[in-house]
Write the structure tokens for this entry.
Amino acid sequence: MGGGLLKLPGAGRLCAYAGLAALGFLTGIAGSLVQGGWFPGGLLLALLALAGLCYGAVLLTRRRAGGAAAGAGWLIAALVLAANRPEGDFLFQAGIGSYAFLLGGMAVAVICATVPKVPQPDGPSARLGK
């Protein structure tokens, strides 16, 4: 009954996606601290780190889902750290840098996870019908 369009990934690939999500989470924490501490350069550094992680994840796993897993981990960390705490403390200050980090990071993660050309599965290189 196999051969359907949707095939669940193996345990190794799921572990790789979980590891990439954890790396994305750590990148989100580090980026949150760096972008506020060294404003113009830190923001650029944080967004470049996210882009490198997401694009590297696509290349490593040879699937766009790898970049999406890293981006999802980053997004979870950024949203958790952006939320107000009951004590009234929060990590992000209200300003253009924080908004650029959140919105720019989301855009970078989506672009890096969806735009790269993923290599096709192994198979004959000839066109069909020839």
Remarks:
- DSSP finds four helices and no strands in the chain.
- The helical segments are 11-37, 39-61, 64-82, 96-114.
